[in-house]
Design brief:
Elements (H helix, E strand, L loop, with lengths): L6 H12 L5 H24 L5 H34 L3 H19 L10
Helix pairs in contact: 3-4
Length: 118
């Protein structure tokens, strides 16, 4: 079974893997186990302890974007205050900080694998 399979496709794969030669009691046991798992999932969703992968990806993506934007704005925000403390020109401090912030963001890298926003 693969993520995203419909229940019909998943059932067909289970039958293909396990065969349809179960006796009634075994089939009932399998059915009850799957119903219990479905009920558990439904409970966890309603309880709020389980969320959709798509929602989790969206939240992580937005959080990373906000962090990146905050860092990109850091030189312009902190440069003048640092310049005042050091008694030098604000433009020079901001200009000096900017490439270091950009390098830090680049070193953190782009999201990989399943966490890339789709």
């Amino acid at each position: 079974m693969e993520e995203g399979d419909s229940p019909t496709v998943a059932a067909a794969k289970i039958i293909a893997l396990t065969g349809a030669d179960m006796d009634f009691e075994e089939a009932r046991r399998v059915k009850e186990n799957y119903l219990a798992l479905l009920n558990k999932l439904e409970y966890e969703q309603k309880d709020g302890s389980l969320i959709a992968v798509q929602l989790a990806e969206q939240v992580l993506f937005e959080g990373a974007r906000q962090a990146r934007d905050a860092w990109l704005n850091f030189p312009a925000r902190i440069g003048p205050m640092l310049a005042a403390t050091l008694g030098i020109e604000a433009d020079k401090v901001t200009e000096a900080l900017t490439p270091h912030v950009h390098k830090q963001i680049a070193d953190l890298g782009e999201p990989e694998g399943e966490f890339v926003k789709r």
